[in-house]
Automatic annotation (TrEMBL):
The gene is hutH. Keywords: Cytoplasm, Histidine metabolism, Lyase. Its EC number is 4.3.1.3. It comes from the Bacteria. Contains an active site 4-methylidene-imidazol-5-one (MIO), which is formed autocatalytically by cyclization and dehydration of residues Ala-Ser-Gly. One of its GO terms (molecular function) is histidine ammonia-lyase activity. It is found in: Cytoplasm. Pathway: Amino-acid degradation; L-histidine degradation into L-glutamate; N-formimidoyl-L-glutamate from L-histidine: step 1/3. The modification 2,3-didehydroalanine (Ser) is found at S139. GO terms for cellular component: cytoplasm. This is Histidine ammonia-lyase. Its main location: cytoplasm. It comes from Roseateles puraquae. HAMAP family: His_ammonia_lyase. There is a cross-link at A138-G140 (5-imidazolinone (Ala-Gly)).
């Protein structure tokens, strides 16, 4: 893949996260020109932040010319203070690639060897060990990016087949030379939003498949409960004009077209309106789609952005605040709302299915209720996960805790905002898995009637891994197998809309 700085697409970022790309940069002119300007500043006597001064609250401290390289080395060592579990390889690959793309735009003052080191590490499959906790999402994602940089220098650690190993040995094994830093380069590498952006992008990519599967589970539930497809009529959604709602309603119409179950109760059904969890699916899921697409636009821009400080322009170096990750924090918080609501409405559909007064199916989806409990407690699990998501959906961006002796007195908390999305996606994937199992069980009770071709195909694929439950059996393994199918995107609704280009 030709790396064109400033022009990465969501599809390219997905390939990068999956390790399905090899990155090359053709045009080095901007990098070389920017590095030359920093070299000139380092040789001069004027104070330039991050080149010949200390950092943060120590910005007024001058550093001697013969200590400029040591300044950058010390910066990386002192800032590699992260804790917690390591970031996943997918996230670290995104960090490597987006940091390289940012530096390659030629506003950061690093030498070409720095950018090439990032590209070589990515292409060789080198995964720095980056603890997930320790960034407040301003002044850059300092600690995570310091761990990434320290590994490239051969002093940190690498993640090798899931194990924490000395980075130097892995660099040697892969034939990679340890990176040595010059003036400003350490600061350029750790200043920026690449950790929070990578975490949020990875969550966005994961949510895209989960969203498409939740459309499928909702359609299957609608048919299992013998709901009406009238609320998906295109005219209803056209007069409101919300684009996500319009697109989602069209997907539901395609999913349900030709269902013999629907045809069987089109006449003589005494119910005038279905519960909101069935009837309002386009409105809820469409709103989630619009939120996800907005987040995608913000995150794609951020993945292409220059976010370190100071920045190098033709005639000067200017200190600013592009490292403040407020856009990422807001995007992550909006994604959290969408993820939580997808899970919340799915949980309500499960509750509806197990209630015979609403679904007109056997109690708890078992033929001999009392002797068997059926999906009674599977719903409790879904409720627990949906409730947990509500707490996790509290906006992280409204919090701020001053750091660096009040020099950095307002921060975004973007890194946590993005990191918590992955727990929410795991929770929602399990909720949707439980809904699929319950909906499939409901369809089983309506045999010999058939649902639509798309829903029957999803039912058949689910049943290949998860058997029907005419009598109680150990259900947890079925939930895990169904959740694995959800996470893998195997049960996605055909024609589901994506989040961006």
């Amino acid at each position: 893949m030709k790396l064109i700085p400033g022009h990465l697409t969501l599809a390219q970022l997905a390939d990068i996260a999956a390790g399905q790309a090899r990155l090359e940069l053709d045009d080095w002119s901007a990098v070389d020109a920017s590095a030359a300007r920093v070299a000139t500043a380092a040789a001069g006597d004027a104070p330039v932040y991050g080149v010949n001064t200390g950092f943060g609250k120590l910005a007024s401290t001058r550093i001697a010319k013969d200590q400029l390289a040591a300044l950058q080395l010390n910066l990386i060592r002192s800032h590699a203070v992260g804790v917690g579990a390591p970031m996943s390889p997918d996230v670290v690959r995104l960090m490597l690639a987006t940091k390289a793309a940012s530096l390659a735009r030629g506003y950061s003052g690093v030498r070409g060897v720095v950018v090439q080191s990032l590209l070589d590490a990515f292409n060789a499959g080198f995964i720095p060990y980056v603890p997930a906790q320790g960034s407040v999402g301003a002044s850059g994602d300092l600690a995570p990016l310091a761990h990434l940089t320290l590994a490239l220098m051969g002093e940190g650690e690498a993640l090798v087949k899931g194990q924490r190993m000395p980075a130097r040995g892995e660099l040697d094994r892969l034939g990679l030379a340890p990176l040595t830093l010059a003036a400003k380069e350490g600061l350029a590498l750790i200043n920026g939003t690449q950790a929070s952006t990578a975490l949020a992008l990875h969550a966005l990519l994961r949510f895209e498949g989960l969203f498409a599967t939740a459309l499928a589970s909702g359609a299957m539930t609608l048919d299992a409960a013998r709901g009406s497809d009238g609320p998906f009529d295109a005219r209803i959604h056209a007069v409101r004009g919300q684009p996500g709602q319009i697109e989602v309603a069209a997907v539901y119409r395609e999913l349900l077209a030709g269902s013999a179950i629907r045809a069987s109760h089109r006449e003589g059904d005494e119910r005038v309106q279905d519960p909101y969890c069935l009837r309002c699916q386009p409105q809820v899921m469409g709103a989630a789609l619009d939120q996800a697409r907005h987040a995608a636009q913000v995150l794609i821009r951020e993945a292409n952005a220059v976010t370190d400080n100071p920045l190098v322009f033709d005639d000067t170096m200017i200190s600013g605040g592009n490292f403040h990750a407020e856009p990422v924090a807001f995007a992550a918080d909006n994604l959290a709302l969408a993820i939580a609501e997808v899970g919340a409405i799915a949980e309500r559909r499960i509750a509806m299915l197990i209630d015979p007064g609403i679904s007109r199916l056997p109690p708890f989806l078992t033929a001999d209720a009392g002797l068997h409990s059926g999906f009674m407690i599977a719903h409790v699990t879904a409720a627990a996960l949906a409730s947990e998501n509500k707490s996790l959906a509290h906006p992280a961006s409204v919090d701020s805790l001053p750091t660096s002796a009040n020099q950095e007195d307002h921060v975004s908390m973007a890194t946590f905002a993005a990191r918590r999305l992955h727990a929410m996606i795991d929770n929602t994937a399990h909720i949707v898995a439980i809904e699929l199992l319950a909906a499939a069980q409901g369809i089983d009770f309506l045999r010999p009637l058939q649902s639509s071709a798309p829903v029957e195909a999803l039912h058949t694929r689910l049943r290949a891994d998860c058997a029907s439950m005419p009598a109680d059996h150990y259900l947890a393994p079925d939930i895990e197998r169904a959740a694995a199918l959800v996470q893998a995107g195997v049960l996605k609704a055909p024609g589901a809309p994506g989040f961006g280009g």
